[in-house]
Amino acid sequence: MTILFNKNYLKKLSEKHLKNKEEYYLIGIVSSCKEYKLAWVLENLLDISLKKESNEKIDLIDNKTIELSFLISRDKNKYFKLISNKLLNNPFKSHLIASLSNFDYLIQFSINYFDNSPSDIINTLKSDNLIHFANFVDIKLIKEKYLLYI
Q: Which has the closest alpha carbon to 11: 61, 62, 58?
């Protein structure tokens, strides 16, 4: 799937999400493991089932294309996404969210996805040695958050 972003589309997309007040948590993960290994770790730690989606190709307005990889778990109106912050085969941009380049992966999930408290989720993630660091990210500080609406 290829998505073309232009200024009008981004404005409408941002307005749509502001109106709907789509709320989610975003966690940054530092881990040297491969995506499939981290997915397996998350499935076991959090008792979820992740499904690999096709890589998403996004045509940016400067005629450049980025390709990102992610896995997702959906349950009615709830979702959990493991997103690789490192872009695939991209010579001009190395990370999906450049301001979060210190994170290898991003976890995005609906606020109502877990019954546990947010701090419990972070502590659970930190309990595995394959996850070197995990912490919540303040979504309001991210300029490129429109890329997370995919």
A: 61
